[in-house]
Amino acid sequence: MIRFENDYTEGTHKQILKRLIETNEEQTPGYGTDEHCKNARAYIRSECDAENADVHFLVGGTQTNTTIIASILRPYQGVISAITGHIEGHETGAIEATGHKVLTLPSDDGKIQAAQVKELNDAHWNDDAHEHTVQPGLVYISNPTENGTTYSKAELEELSNVCRECNLPLMMDGARLGYGLASIGNDLSLADIAKLCDVFYIGGTKIGALFGEAVVIVNDDLKKDFRYMIKQKGGLLAKGRLLGIQFETLFEDGLYYEISKHAVEMSIMIRDAFVEKGFSLRYDSMSNQQFPILPDDVIMELNKKYTNSFWEKVDDTHSVVRFCTSWATKKEHVEMLVEDITALDI
Amino acid sequence: MIRFENDYTEGTHKQILKRLIETNEEQTPGYGTDEHCKNARAYIRSECDAENADVHFLVGGTQTNTTIIASILRPYQGVISAITGHIEGHETGAIEATGHKVLTLPSDDGKIQAAQVKELNDAHWNDDAHEHTVQPGLVYISNPTENGTTYSKAELEELSNVCRECNLPLMMDGARLGYGLASIGNDLSLADIAKLCDVFYIGGTKIGALFGEAVVIVNDDLKKDFRYMIKQKGGLLAKGRLLGIQFETLFEDGLYYEISKHAVEMSIMIRDAFVEKGFSLRYDSMSNQQFPILPDDVIMELNKKYTNSFWEKVDDTHSVVRFCTSWATKKEHVEMLVEDITALDI
Amino acid sequence: MIRFENDYTEGTHKQILKRLIETNEEQTPGYGTDEHCKNARAYIRSECDAENADVHFLVGGTQTNTTIIASILRPYQGVISAITGHIEGHETGAIEATGHKVLTLPSDDGKIQAAQVKELNDAHWNDDAHEHTVQPGLVYISNPTENGTTYSKAELEELSNVCRECNLPLMMDGARLGYGLASIGNDLSLADIAKLCDVFYIGGTKIGALFGEAVVIVNDDLKKDFRYMIKQKGGLLAKGRLLGIQFETLFEDGLYYEISKHAVEMSIMIRDAFVEKGFSLRYDSMSNQQFPILPDDVIMELNKKYTNSFWEKVDDTHSVVRFCTSWATKKEHVEMLVEDITALDI
Amino acid sequence: MIRFENDYTEGTHKQILKRLIETNEEQTPGYGTDEHCKNARAYIRSECDAENADVHFLVGGTQTNTTIIASILRPYQGVISAITGHIEGHETGAIEATGHKVLTLPSDDGKIQAAQVKELNDAHWNDDAHEHTVQPGLVYISNPTENGTTYSKAELEELSNVCRECNLPLMMDGARLGYGLASIGNDLSLADIAKLCDVFYIGGTKIGALFGEAVVIVNDDLKKDFRYMIKQKGGLLAKGRLLGIQFETLFEDGLYYEISKHAVEMSIMIRDAFVEKGFSLRYDSMSNQQFPILPDDVIMELNKKYTNSFWEKVDDTHSVVRFCTSWATKKEHVEMLVEDITALDI
C-alpha cells in the first residue's frame, strides 16, 4: 500500500537522521537550553529577519496551538478562527479545555477575510451587553489552510491591518508553512509573515522532522513567561536538543525550502492528473494537499493501492478525498498514481 | 418610563415578600439544610411526580447552567445546543471556562429537532478519527426558548427518545419555565418534563422570586456529589433558606402557575396589538416575550414611553425588538402600550 | 436551640428589610446598572476615600474570591495564602478549578507575615528552573482571618510594602471586614485598607445583608473588563438592585459599623466568660468569633442549648469549638450563655 | 565538563537508534495505530502479566501525569501526593491548570504511607461540611521517588489495600521506573505493580529512549476514551510509530532492565565513594540518584569537572546536591569522579 493519507507517514529526512546520529552521544543540558537550540533560534531569526523575536521549540501542533492561544487570551476572551480551522474541529476541544471559546467565521476554502474579522469585532463592541458575550482576543489563521489554500501577501496585509486596528494579535498556524511558502503563486516570505503576524509557528513534523514546531513570537507584549506556559502544557521536551538539532538542519542551509518544494511538485502532478481526467477539485490548492471530487467507485478502485483520507460526501455517488504529498513522497509512487488515474475507466 | 425590556425589572411577588418578612428573624442552619428548603424540595418533587428526584437551589441562570453542565461532562465532551442557546451566546463563555465546547446546531426559532441531535451524534461516532473531535456528551435545550417558542409534548418525547438512544442526557434550561407551561397551546406538565428530561431547572428569578433557580435531577447517574459542584462554582448560598422560602411560597399553593399565566396574558395582548396593526413577528411566541418586526421610526416612537430590547436589524429601516412581560407587569401599562400601538401613525 | 454556629443564621437587618419592601415595585434596569447600585458605589468610594476605585457587587464569598483571583492571575501564576485561608481549605477547590494553584504559607493564627511573602517570592525567582514551578502572582489575606485575628496597621503596611516591592498585588478577603474594623484594638480604617491593598471586598452576607459582597478595586491595572469576569463566573445578579439597596442602607449612615460593633461586644462577653471560667482560647480573637478549648463533656453540655461549630480535636478529652456572634445576635441569648458558662460544674 | 546533572543528557541507546534508522523510510499510519506500537503494547502487556491492560504512549512526563490525572478526577476531586511529588512542585501547576487540587501529604524521603492516605481520606468524609472541601479522588506516588527512594512490595501492597478500601485509584509515576526495578534490594516486578496499581507508566525518556512514556491502564474503569484525553492534552504524537519503535526495542529482549541495572551500578559507585569519604547522604537512595550533603567548597571543587543539581541548603556551609547516573553514563567518567572524591582534601 502506498500512503497519501497524510504528510507524516515516514520518519525524518536523511540529513536530520545523520545529525541525530552524529550528536547522539553529546551531553547537553535539558529543556532547550543547549547549543543546538541556540543555533536553530539564530537561523530562524535570521530567516525571518526578526532579530528580536523569541523562538521556542515544541513537539506537536495541538500542543503548540493550545500553548500560544492560552498564553495570550484573558479568561473571558476567545480566539477568532475560520470554522474550518484545526483548533475548531480537530483538536478535541483543546482550546476550550484551557477555558476559551473559538469564535468561528464561515469559510468555504479555509481562509478568512479582514472584513469578517472587523465585522465580528465591531459587533461585539457595539453590543450594549458586550460583557455577556465572549470578547474577541486573538485571530487565528492557518497557512496553508486545512484545505491547502494560501493567503496572498495582499490578503495577509489586509488581515494584519484590521487586527492592529482592532487591537487583536494575529497568529498563524504554520504546521505546513513550508508547503505554503513553496505553493505555486505564493508571494509571502518568512520575513513578511514575521512583519505581519504577532506570533506564528514553522512546522517541522510534517516537513522533514521526526517532530517539532518552532514558535516565533514577534510582538514583545506576547513574549513574557512563555516558557512557563510550555512547561505547564506539557510541551517542554526534556531532551530539547532534539528539536534544536532538527531545526538547525532544516534552516542552516535551505533544506526546509528545498524539501517543501519537492512535496508541492508531487502534489501538482497529482492535481494535474485528476484535472486532466475531468474531475473537479473541492478546493483550489497549490500546496501539498489535493481534494478531488470523485465517484465512489473510483475511490474504491484507487484505495486498492493508495491510502488517502476521506474528506466529505458530496452526493449519493460522489465524495471528496484528500491526497497528501510530503518531503518524503517518492516520485515513482506519484508517477504510478498518475498513471493509474489516467487509466481509470470512467 | 415603563419597562418591558426584560422579565426581572421588579423585586419579588408580595406573597414572597410577606414570607421573607415573617421568617426574617428565624435562626436556621446554612447552605440549604434548613426546613424551608426541605419543604420546597417536597413541593417540587410532588409537582414533578418525581419522588426520587434530587432538588437543589441556586441563585442565577448562568451559574446554574455552568454547574449542571460541568457536573455531567467528561473533559473531552461537549454540550449540544441550538446556536441561539443562552449558553452559546450570552454567558461570556462560562461553559468553555469550565473546559467544554458548545456543539451548536442551527436553529431559526430557538428549538432543535431530534433528527439534528441524531445526525450530529452519528457523525461523531462514524468519524474514524473521532478522538480528534469533541465527543457529544449532553443535550441542552431551553423551554421556552430565548425566542419565546416552546416544545410540544410530541417534540420533547422525540428528543428524549433520541437522547436515550444516543446515551446523551437531556437537560432543560427552564429559566422561564413557568411562562412556557402557561404559554398558549402548551401540552407539557412538570411531570412530563421530569419523565422526559434527565435534569432541568425551574426558574424563579424571572417568575416571582427575588432570585433563585430550582434544579431537579431525575436521572440517578447525575445525582452524585452535586453539592460539591454547587460549592465550587460559587452557587451555594450561605443563607440558603432564602431560596427555600421563595420556592416554598411559589409551589405550596400554585402561585408559580398563576403568576406565569398572568404574564402570558399580558404578552398576548401586546402580540395581538402588533399583529392587528399589521406588523409581522420574528418568532411565533405564545409565551411572555414578543418579537415584532418594526420600522425604526416606530421603535423610536415607542421608546419614548416604553423600554424594550433591541434584538436585530432586519434591513435599513426595520428592526426586531423584544417586549417582555412578567408576573409583575401591570395590566394598565399593557393597556396603555396597546393603545399607543393601535394609535401609531404608519 | 440558640445558634452560635456561624454569622449567617438570620435574614437581614430590619432597615434593609424596610428598604427592600419600599423599593420592591420599582422598575430598574438589570445587572447592577440601576440607581441604587450607583448610590451604593458612591457611599463606598467615599468611605474608602478612593474616588477612583471601581466598586462591583457580587452575591457570595467563594464566588467573589474566585472571580477576583482568576481575573488577576496569568495561567501559570498562583495565589499566595495562609494555609488556613478560606480559599485553600473551604471552597472545594474553586481556585484550582479556574486553573490556579494556591501557594500556601504556614500560619498558626490565620495571618501571614511580610517576611514570609518575601521569602517565598525570592525562592521562586532564585530557582534556576523557576519556569518549572508556579509563579507567585498575588497575595491573598483575610481580615479578620478565619481564626478571628486581625492585622494591625503596621502589619498591613509591611505586607503592602513587600507586595509592591515584589510586584505582587495584595488582595483582602473582607467577608467579615466590619467585625474586623470593630474588633478591640483595631487601628485600620477602610481608607487605610484602600491605600494599602490593590483590591478587597466588604462583606455583607455576614454583616446585616441577606447576601452580598462589595468588591473595591483600587489598582487601575486590575480594573479592566471585570464585569466580563463576574458574568462568566455566574456572579452577575439579574436584579442587581438588590445588592445596591442593601449596601446603600449599610453605608449611607454608618449602619455597617454600628451593627459590627454590636457583634463584637457580644463576642467579647462570651470570650470573657470562658476566660474567667479558666478556659484557654485557641486564638486570641477580638472580633466576632471565639475559639475556646473545652473539655468534651463541657461541649456536650453546652450543645444541649447552643449550636456552635466543631473546630478541631486537641487531645483525647478536649476540643476547640467556635462560637460566632453577628449583627443579629440577641443580648439575652448571650447573657444566658454567659450564665450557663459561669455555672458549669468543672 | 562531565554531566551528572540529570538522566537525560544524551540522545538514545544505540539499539534504538539503529531501529530508528532501519525503519525511517517505512510508511505507517499515524497516532499510534501502527504495527510498532502494536508490538510494543504486546511486549509491555506480557511483561506486566496484564493481558487486558490498555497501553498508550505519550511523549513526556508532565504531559503524562496531567493526562492521566485529568482523565480520572471529577471536577471537585483532587489528587493525593507527597509534598515532594513532581506534580506538586515541578510541573508549573499543570494539574491545577486542569482544574484539580493536589492534596499534599508530608514526606521526608519522597514516599507516603498507607496510614497517611487513610487518615486524609477519613478526615474528608468525617467532616460534616465535606462538600466545602476538595474530595480525594486519586493517589499519586512516584517510584523511585524524586529522592531516589523506592517502595517495597509490602509497602505497595499496604498502599494498594488502603486505596481499594477507600475507593481511590492508585497511580504510579514511573518516569524512572527501570531504575527503581534495578535498585538494590528492590522486590517489586512490573507484574506486581500492574496488580497493585490501577494505572502507572514506564518511563522511556530517562531510560534509553529519545523520549516517551508508556502508560499502562489496568483498571477497566479508567480505560474509557483515554485517547480523547491524550489528543486534547497535546500528547498524541503524529508519528506515533517513533514511540512504538522505541518501546519495542526496550522491551522485546530485556534491554530496559539491562540498561537500568547499569545506571544503578554507576550510582552505587558514586554513593560508596561519598560515604567512604565520610559524607552523609540526604536520602537513602539505592537507585540512580545520589544526594550527598557536602561542604560548599567541596561542591565548588567538584563543579569544576562535573555538573550536578543543587538540591537544597543545609546550613551556612553545607548543601545537598544531586548526582544522576543513567543508561548512558560512562564507567570511566564515574571512575574519574570516584577518584576525585577520594582525593578530596577535607
TrEMBL record, chains A, B, C, D:
UniProt signal peptide: none
Keywords in alphabetical order: Pyridoxal phosphate
Keyword Oxidoreductase: no
Pfam families in the record: Beta_elim_lyase
InterPro entries: ArAA_b-elim_lyase/Thr_aldolase (IPR001597), PyrdxlP-dep_Trfase (IPR015424), PyrdxlP-dep_Trfase_major (IPR015421), PyrdxlP-dep_Trfase_small (IPR015422)
Domain Aromatic amino acid beta-eliminating lyase/threonine aldolase residue range list: 23-239
Name the record gives this protein: Threonine aldolase family protein
